[in-house]
Amino acid sequence: MSLLSVRDLVVKFAMRDQTVTALNGISFDLNRGERMGIVGESGAGKSITGFAILNLISRPGFIDSGHVMFDGMDLAHTSDKALRTIRGNRIAMIFQDPMVTLNPVLTIGQQMVETLQAHRSLTRRDAEKIAVAKLREVYIPAPEERLQQYPHELSGGMRQRIIIAIALLLDPQLIIADEPTTALDVTIQADIMELLLELCQSNNVSLILITHDLGVVSQMTERTLVMYAGRIIESGRTRAIINDPQHPYTQGLIKALPQQTLPGERLKQIPGNMPALSAIPPGCPFNPRCEYTVDRCRTTIPELVRVGPVEVACHEVQRMNRDTETEEQTA
Questions:
Q1: Helix or strand run (H / E) with residue 127
Q2: CA-to-CA distance for 208 and 228, rounded, in angstroms?
Q3: Domain positions in the chain
Q4: Collapsing DSSP states into helix, strand and coil, what is residue 11?
Q5: Where does the ABC transporter domain start and stop, copy by copy (predicted)?
Q6: Does pTM surpass 0.85?
Q7: Beta strands per DSSP E along the chain
Q8: Is residue 183 predicted with pLDDT exceeding 80?
Q9: How many Cα atoms within 13 Å fall on the side-chain side of residue 24?
């Protein structure tokens, strides 16, 4: 049985003059110990998916329908008391900015000890021992000294390592990492992602990595969901999606990677922008930006169908494949 099973999840936001849909029929499974990436541009619904799994959608947002089954419990329809036994304990979340996550007026030790004591019957001394052990696990030097320091006394990379240590404090079964290296220097980003991968593998922890960077996803995850305008438009094994993307949006994301462009050339980009939630076009939401658009794309939402090793939501995927084969034969 899957550790996490999301079915037909719909999240809406009640605005002053209308209700908009942020997630529209999201469904996926995550196995124990599996690492999955969720990718897409800003506004695709990636972070909302992470928050919805933990039922952390704040008003005016709300889960309108669907199920989030975690180890037999539906997190979308359960009490706040039951959710408190899950959040931070069995499911941990790593947010984008560690300075927002860490409390600036409490020492690192206070924050780690309080987290442990909120979920475990531990003395302060025992909680501090566990905190020191977790700091060592994420390669924090002089961990006993770090417990006495405040977040502003540490570098960005050190703070993010501490966030990871806090996420691992209670030995969770699942970590949701929402753009965990956004605020960090490029050289530090690689170290943090390598550390996160190592810890998930050594502790058999499932991972949902939310990011816009397909390069990171290719190195970190086994399976990938590509999202656009609140929908999953392609899903499958990461290697299959990276090597042979089927949806024109996924193809555009890969072509836009810097390594796909020769030195001195302009970076490739997908024309247009992600639509606002209040102005999602009818039919396929990607149709205004897609070179393969036909009349059906403007009126009918495509369903996810299996094409080889992946599932893709595109009316014209067969025609695209024929065009690609023709181009390759001509070349």
A1: helix 124-137
A2: 17
A3: 4-90+172-330, 105-169
A4: strand
A5: 4-254
A6: yes
A7: 4-14, 19-30, 35-39, 61-70, 73-74, 91-94, 174-178, 206-211, 223-228, 231-237, 305-307, 310-312
A8: no
A9: 19
Give, in order, the Cα–Cα distances in Å from 202 to each of 88, 156, 166, 196. 19, 25, 17, 10
CA dihedral 155, 257, 201, 178 (to 10 degrees): 60
With CA atoms as reference, report the closest residue to 327 among 274, 257, 251, 253: 251
Mean pLDDT calculated for residue range 29-34: 96
Residue 96 has pLDDT above 90, yes or no: no
CB 89 within 8 A of CB 170: yes
Please give the distance of CA 109 from its chain centroid, rounded to a whole number: 28
- The residue whose two tokens read 């980009």 is 269
Partnered with residue 63 across adjacent β-strands are 11
Task: State the pLDDT at residue 261.
Answer: 81
**38, burial (CB in 10 Å: exposed 0-12, middle 13-18, buried 19+):** buried
pLDDT at 324: 60
- Helices 156-168 and 186-203 meet at what angle, rounded to 10? 10
Residue 330 predicted with pLDDT over 60: no
Mean pLDDT of 227-252: 95
Rounded to an integer, what distance in angstroms lies between the CA atom of residue 35 and that of residue 222?
A: 6
Q: Residues 56-81: what's their mean pLDDT? A: 93
Alpha carbon 2 to its chain centroid, in Å, reads 18
Alpha-carbon gap, residue 255 to 328, rounded angstroms: 17
Statement: residue 326 has pLDDT above 70: no
